[in-house]
Amino acid sequence: MFARTARLTLRPAWLEDAPQLAAAIGHESVTRNLSKVPWPYSLADAEAHIMRPRQPSDVFCLIFDHEGAYPRLIGGIGMGRIEGRHEFGYWLTPSAWGRGYATEAGRAMVSAARHTLGLRRLKAGHFVDNPASGRVLTKLGFRPTGTVTPRTSLARGGETPCVDLVLDLDDGECRMDRLAA
Q1: Fewest CB within 10 A of the end CB: N or C in the chain?
Q2: How far apart (Å, rounded) are the C-alpha atoms in residues 25 and 106?
Q3: Percent of the chain with pLDDT over 90
Q4: How far is CA 177 from CA 8, 33, 58, 106, 108, in A?
Q5: 158-168 sheet: strands from edge to edge
Q6: Closest Cα partner for 113 from 89, 97, 92?
Q7: What pLDDT, on the 0 to 100 scale, is given for residue 178?
Q8: Are the CB atoms for 124 and 137 separated by under 8 Å?
Q9: Distance of alpha carbon 176 from its chain centroid, rounded?
């Protein structure tokens, strides 16, 4: 899937993106807020992630800021089937925090889930000590389920409490961004 927003381009990862991916995600402050990402994060980890087989309904895109002279890899976003449900997730490199990029990229991905993939529901979560991620998910329409469950964090080396959220895609409207699948 490819998507373009006012400031961002979302596209699949290519093997030649691995060095930029490793540099962008390779911050302990990023990896500690993700469940399946190790710390430290190496070039080999980036290559393995890019080459990992995915199901047809799984979508993973790199996020590029195209406001400058050259596109800059600033994060990743996606959704995949886990335990029978589609789970939504994202991350940004620290220099991109606080600029609205996660919400902008998230709107494009939610639009793809609703209009391109025809999904009816997305699940998401954020670690209790990462409320900024919860605010982004709420802006995208996710609502807390009222449950907090333990989730493994590879970077933290154990389980961490995670707030569970859900988004019913049959409800409300989502602005359609330019997409290509």
Answers
A1: C
A2: 18
A3: 84
A4: 11, 28, 19, 11, 6
A5: 143-153, 158-168, 121-127, 85-92, 72-82, 59-65, 8-11, 2-4, 178-180
A6: 89
A7: 46
A8: yes
A9: 18
Q: Give per-residue pLDDT as tens, 31-90.
A: 999 999 999 999 999 999 999 998 887 899 999 999 888 999 999 999 998 888 999 999
Q: Are 181 and 112 in contact (CB under 8 A)?
A: yes
For residue 39, give the amino acid letter. Answer: W
Predicted local confidence at residue 174, as pLDDT: 45
Amino acid symbol at 129: D
Q: How far lies 9's CA from each of 81, 100, 148, 181, in Å?
A: 23, 14, 33, 13
CB 75 within 8 A of CB 92: yes
Give the count of alpha carbons within 13 A of 7, CB side only: 16
Q: From residue 95, how far is each of 83, 99, 161 by CA, in Å?
A: 33, 9, 26
Instruction: Look at residue 177 in the predicted model and tell me its pLDDT.
Output: 44
pTM above 0.70, yes or no: yes
Output the CA angle 170-4-110, nearest 5 degrees.
20
Q: What is the CA radius of gyration of the chain?
A: 15
Q: 180: which 2 tokens?
A: 């290509």
Token couple for 106: 């998230």
